From TrEMBL:
This is Aldehyde dehydrogenase (NADP(+)). InterPro entries: Ald_DH/histidinol_DH, Ald_DH_C, Ald_DH_N, Aldehyde_DH_dom, Aldehyde_DH_Superfamily, ALDH_KGSADH. PANTHER family: ALDEHYDE DEHYDROGENASE-RELATED (PTHR43353:SF3), SUCCINATE-SEMIALDEHYDE DEHYDROGENASE, MITOCHONDRIAL (PTHR43353). The keyword Iron does not apply. Keywords: Oxidoreductase. It comes from the Bacteria. It comes from Pseudomonas piscis. It holds the Pfam family Aldedh. The keyword Cytoplasm does not apply. Residues 17-460 form the Aldehyde dehydrogenase domain.
Length: 525
């Protein structure tokens, strides 16, 4: 399990020929060996050629074979043991238990997709049998199944070096759909990426799959990233990161002769609405819960509660007093990269310099480099509505409380919000009508609406939606977490009047795969 500093192209270790990227331990600012020379367009071409040649055989692997492969990846990752945890801790500055938890989440995710693949519901089989006697025209025999889109380019995220990176949710769902995957490693954690890439490559070999099913490339977004998105053999993209990065990749995908879908998860400030009775009955407890959520992972979560909205009054004052004290007690935490720390510091500076916002409190200063100091700001609804800059995401433990005159202004603020991954409601029974008034707006704005909890913590399950209107994501019709994420990498094909022997097994008359199907309008399980 040595780190080689090389890319993995169809299972082969290939050295790059551009400047070497070295991970920086953000807790010490020390560079970590080895260096990872970046790849060039020729490496993109090699990986895409292999992925394309693997596509037809991989997408027709049996459900059992594909599910076993996903489970095999999970087993290979677990076998990496402490070597993986040690490297991920050093590259991310995240605490060891968090990284251990992420290994578990990554493997659980892969196994959950294995279960989804086996169940076969994603094939969404529909059969409309021929009606030769129908008047005025006969109906032909029509059968639909879903097939994989084609090779997928995945951009590993900095803030989840395992669960949203090389073998994370995008890779797992694309492989589950039957798509070969080429990952552009995030430059913040190249060693973690190599270890996980080696694990996937071992699983590819152990399951006798075409080597092009998986490749891992290093290098810059401008060369490797745009190169992948522009390659005609890439048919979809999964991305988690900044708004500017997601928009650039979406535009590159749209500018192709054959445009392709980009599933980019980008920017969300995750509004939290504190309703009148909940605030009055348990304001201080809500304040403690809020600051605990704000501080999780140094606020480097896409679901970080970056905005709180409530009506002015004594109850809100009590909430703010407790929240400010909790913020002032908050220890500093190491951020993921020096770049993310700089972006956080710039975001704080911009907000502090905005005439509409006022600092309520700041956390303890850290001793080492790249320390995130928690910050809480307040602004009036009037200023929030006037100043677009007050809606900008500050990636880290910073949040803004917006104080409203009345319920009508709360609704106005909600209408003014950009698209969000989540909206959180703290309510008591007596708040029901106020919630009903707000809900239609929030349904239009957010992918997940939650009650009396905190948005951080995203369950991997069938019902999860981790998505939302722009700029939360580039395509609000999908989720990047949970089993429904597989749908992003599938498309329907209809077979008309085919002889049964020429049909794929999923839609043959005798239903040899024993799939749940919609036959002549009736569900048959
Ligand atoms: P990032 O800068 O968007 O980078 C993510 C990946 O996309 C990297 O591999 C990067 O390549 C590539 N990329 C970025 N811009 C590109 C472009 N214009 N063309 C082609 N490829 C491009 O994200 P990050 O490094 O993880 O974090 C930077 C900021 O993103 C944070 O400060 C935060 O504001 C935001 N962020 C948000 C979330 C969220 O969930 N909301 C998560 C993570 C980060 P390179 O190797 O060239 O950098």
């Amino acid at each position: 399990m040595d780190l080689t500093g090389k890319m993995l192209i169809g299972g082969q270790a290939v050295p790059g020929n551009r400047d070497a990227i070295k991970a920086i331990n953000p807790a010490t600012d020390q560079a970590l060996e080895p260096g990872y020379p970046g790849g060039s367009r020729e490496h993109v071409d090699q990986a895409c050629a292999l992925a394309w040649s693997a596509f037809d055989s991989y997408r027709e692997t049996s459900l059992e074979q594909r599910a076993a492969f996903l489970e095999g990846i999970a087993g290979q990752i677990e076998a990496l043991g402490d070597a993986l945890v040690d490297r991920a801790v050093a590259e991310s500055g995240l605490p060891r238990p968090r990284i251990q938890g992420e290994v578990g989440r990554t493997c659980f995710q892969l196994r959950t997709f294995a279960r989804t693949v086996r169940a076969g519901e994603w094939l969404d089989v529909r059969v409309d049998e021929a009606l030769p006697e129908r008047q005025p025209l006969p109906r032909p025999d029509l059968r639909q199944r879903h097939i994989a889109l084609g090779p997928v380019a995945v951009f590993g995220a900095s803030n989840f070096p395992l669960a949203f990176s090389v073998a994370g949710g995008d890779t797992a769902s694309a492989l589950a759909a039957g798509c070969p995957v080429i990952v552009k490693a995030h430059s913040a954690h190249p060693g973690t990426s190599e270890l996980v890439g080696q694990a996937i490559s071992r699983a590819v070999a152990a399951h006798d799959l075409a080597p092009g099913v998986f490749s891992l490339l290093y290098g810059s977004g401008a060369e490797i990233g745009i190169g992948l998105v522009s390659d005609p053999r890439i048919k979809a993209v999964g991305f988690t990161g900044s708004r500017s990065g997601g928009v650039a990749l979406t535009q590159a995908a749209q500018a192709r002769p054959e445009p392709i879908p980009v599933y980019a998860e980008m920017s969300s400030i995750n509004p939290v609405f504190l309703f009148e009775h909940a605030l009055r009955n348990r304001g201080p407890a809500l304040a403690e819960g809020f600051v605990a959520s704000l501080n999780q992972g140094a606020g480097q979560f896409c679901t970080n509660p970056g905005l709180v909205i409530a009506i002015k009054g004594d109850a809100l004052d009590a909430f703010l007093a407790t929240a400010t004290q909790a913020v002032q007690r908050s220890p500093a935490q190491t951020m993921l990269t020096p770049g993310i720390f700089r972006a956080y510091a710039n975001g704080l500076q911009a907000l502090a310099g905005n005439a509409g916002a006022r600092v309520l409190g700041a956390g303890l200063e850290g001793a080492g480099p790249n320390q995130c100091q928690t910050h809480l700001f307040v602004a009036s609804a009037q200023d929030f509505l006037r100043e677009p800059a007050l809606q900008a995401e500050i990636f880290g433990s910073a949040s803004l409380v917006v104080t409203c005159e009345d319920a009508a202004q709360v609704l106005q603020v909600a209408e003014h919000l950009e698209g969000q991954l989540t909206a959180t409601l703290h309510l008591d029974e007596a708040d029901a009508q106020a919630v009903r008034n707000l809900l239609p707006t929030l349904e239009r704005k957010a992918g997940r609406i939650l009650v009396n909890g905190w948005p951080t913590g995203v369950e991997v399950c069938d019902a999860m939606v981790h998505g939302g209107p722009f700029p939360a994501t580039s395509d609000s019709r999908s989720t990047s977490v949970g089993t429904a994420a597989i749908a992003r990498f599938l498309r329907p094909v209809c077979y008309q009047n085919f002889p049964d022997a020429l049909l794929p097994a999923a839609i043959q008359g005798a239903n040899p795969m024993a799939l749940s199907r919609l036959v002549n309008g009736q569900r048959q399980s």
